[in-house]
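Changelog entry: the Voltage-gated inwardly rectifying potassium channel KCNH3 record was regenerated in this release. Current contents:
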Amino acid sequence: SNFVLGNAQVPSAFPVVYCSDGFCDLTGFSRAEVMQRCCACSFLYGPDTSELLRQQLRRALDEHQAFKGELILYRKSGVPFWCLLDVVPIKNEKDEVALFLVSHKDITSTKSCSGADSTKDTGGRRRFSRAGGKGFNASRRRSRAVLYHLSGHLQKQRKSKHKLRKGIFGHKPSLPEYKVAAIRKPPLILLHYGAFKAGWDGLILLATLYVAVTVPYSVCVGTGTEEGLPAARGPPSACDLCVEILFMLDIILNFRTTFVSKSGRVVLEPRAIACHYLAGWFPLDLVAALPFDLLAACQVNVYVGAHLLKTVRLLRLLRLLPNLDRYSQYSAVVLALLMVVFALLAHWVACGWFFLGQREVEGSPATLPEIGWLQELARRLDTPYYLTRRNCSTGGAGNGMGPGANCSGIGGLLGGPSLRSAYITSLYFALSSLTSVGFGNVSANTDTEKIFSICTMLVGALMHAVVFGNVTAIIQRLYARRFLYHSRTRDLHDYIRIHRIPRPLKRRILEYFQSTWAANNGIDTAELLQHLPEELRADIALHLHQELLRLPLFAGASRGCLRALSLGVRPAFCTPGELLVRQGDALQALYFLRSGSMEVLRDGTVLAILGKGDLIGCDLGGSLRPRRARADVRGLTYCALQSLGLPALAEGLALDPDFARTFRQQLPRELSYDL
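Regenerated structure tokens:
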């Protein structure tokens, strides 16, 4: 909305107490140039402005009546425009007119389309209307929306039109060439920090996790026996073939991927890259990429024991360890990694437990096993093991037996629980052993099983310490700020109780503490940055306070002056109803309103309503000595401000005398309200 608010309780003057950003954009005047001038906006009049409408507008203001009319106004640049002027009186709780809402709407395009070329005076009588008109009700509704805007619920983002010199905020300062310039790399060389390499590493990570799950299962669970002979190995799956292809491609890409040398230089030479990789991870990657499944898929006979070499692929997990440090600061990532590691360990223990039980069963092919954990599971599931017998065929002397001999022998061991039930039970035993002492329903019976259980419990105790220790640290990190907040709150309550602070003052203290905590989350910026070098602190201060230092008031300052001024800026906060400046107090700083709304009061009369982007202070004249404030400044909403103290201002201006003279001349024109 393009509007101004005028104080109706100051007769004849009706000064502007609030000016919207839209009005500044429409007219070209800054807020400081509009504040405290008459809300009739006579500074917008020009030679073509209707004299009749001027008088009618003035009469409506004097009589506290509504007004609506179309007239020609002039922007600051001198360009005329047709304006729909709408004045709406706003009453307070005593039914007295307290404010005038004067809205301006540019209707130049409408007037040009309609082709209305009538004279201004006659047109003024035709277009004039009073409070009974239809437009008044719409204006009244709009006035409610404007007051809602002023209450702080609708903060309009102020558009910044002014820019400082490019060397200060426009362009970043020059950095070393290797940080900003594109690296000139040879063809077919991959950068180790590029997007493609990051995506490829993620794909290899998924393939490595797949190997970590499937290889132990295929070695320990997937191989069975049938009548003492190795079971026929099934054809490799499509996932196994894809993983082997990925590992082989990864070796090729690693020969063409850059790395960082010990001196910190990015190495781009192919020969140096190859030598570095051959001396590093190449042997491990080569063994892990042996294509057993591809050979089996191509009908090539592979010795069954060679498949055990696939367990070497688990060593690829070691390549992930150097990359974990970069994620250690993210609590959710650390927690997820701990859960993945714990689940992998439980899976490996389950595979080992199943392999051990299977070996116990196969260790006595001539007799029925009795005390192993698989035998106990078979009895509970009513799927017992049983022996098969084979008959010797009758034959002559050539077969080593007497003629007509009829014998019988042990055939093999069959039955038992299914593979699915056995693995699930193994996983249940692994998790119960790693997380607790176990429930006893799946227990170790033989000496070998007991030794394995002891080792599992020792590993489980270590995992308890690692997992729960990290989880405790993560939880403490998540709630550290909350604990600090409650601690500070208890200290405040104790302080209030000890010193018997009255209830109204107690409420103000607690409200200010809670509001400031919500704004900065309890972070003390001065304490946090005190150990940094002054050069770095100045750059940080320039970034934090650039909204203030980008005002036209500081446009001519040198970089050294801006850095000195930025170090003197301090954050401030004001709650609703709290006084920022009291009438008669010494003004020690200039205040820049970053967010919220404030009002300037004198003897209960509203002199100005300030919003985001306004500058509050006083004309310093030739000296920088503090002056007494002539009015109160009080918060209407929660307000965030930046204060520039007079001592810091004097120190910064001393570095640039030319800018100091310009600053003193422009300050009265740039202040939204001169206190």
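The first strand starts at residue 3 and ends at 7.
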